[in-house]
């Protein structure tokens, strides 16, 4: 009996132990499942919140141009009364070729590419030296690719140190005011708020093709402000310290040069009284199109023998909707005009004559042909050392090398290309086209008269002193420039740039 009771008690303990183990196991399972469910719920909540924040942020960025900003106090420049951002941008005449929205234009340049016209057939056989040199360029197999503000090709292998302050990166776009046609924004250094602007348009080249005359006539339009000068050269020279004082001009200083005090006050007055402004600023530096000085200093060109990033990409990155105006002249008379203009200020050209010009050109042609035999056309054209050694500005007439780059950066509808000979022949017609390109208000005949009748600038008297270019030189230059003119006509889809209708003296 005693044994039976003992066995019964032992059996009860074992059952209890098994029951406790089962209960413990179930408890652990419940805790484990509860932890998993809790974690999943927290993960879902965090994901929903993160998505909501990103969506709200994107919505704010996309809707920013339509939002109304709170008023600013009189700390805005020299303003003495409160200033409110108007909600509507300045109205402009609608045209069939209106530009697309600037939103994200620099991020997705492919969207701005227009359908190219059918390739023209010129029946010209390029010389072997030209073809071989073109094929040596790293851009040869991507020459038709639209890049926008992206580099032309992958990074170069070699590394260099740049100038004394290193390489110069892109300047990020600003929050441009939607009610100002010109790209302007509110700069906030500390507690002070200042209105700053950059150029809306650039007369980017080419030297001795009428750029000074055109730029000064553009500034006579009432909607265009004068700024402090015509040629700022900030993108290719002064920001790198390439000045007589060897002092770098900062981006802020450049914006102050572009606007000047009067121009900035005019924009502010329009914004206060009209709620919007259509006034524009421009930069007339004709060396931008063939940037020789600046590209080796730009970030992204480390160790490169030819530019991977040009100032064109940097301009487009800062303001994707910039308008580019370029004037091209028959390269032979342009070269002689450039030579004559440099005689008074170039020691090498002291007591120069048309005969000495002949000698300089023959030497320059030889130097560039030797370069083409070893290097790419693009490398030679962008080579600043060779440019200086050649003395005459022979490479400035290699138009298609530089134009091909600019056409890969800016959509064709943002570039206005003028033939100098047409500009000289029909001044009023070409000026009217430029005003339309810049979306300036149409002017009456009375308003246009002083713009058209203005005395031409940079008409030098050296031609009378030195005389015309010697006839023996023309065949040499024609042979050298012919493939460049043919390629230019091809990439512009315009046979006028063969200059067959121009009779040289």
UniProtKB/TrEMBL annotation:
The keyword Transmembrane helix applies. InterPro entries: CS_Sulfotransferase, P-loop_NTPase, Sulfotransferase_dom. Residues 82-117 are annotated as: Disordered. SUPFAM superfamilies: P-loop containing nucleoside triphosphate hydrolases (SSF52540). Residues 320-455 form the Sulfotransferase domain. Keywords: Membrane, Transmembrane, Transmembrane helix. The chain crosses the membrane at residues 28-48. Pfam families: Sulfotransfer_1. GO terms for biological process: hexose biosynthetic process. The keyword Transmembrane helix applies. One of its GO terms (molecular function) is N-acetylgalactosamine 4-sulfate 6-O-sulfotransferase activity. This is Sulfotransferase domain-containing protein.
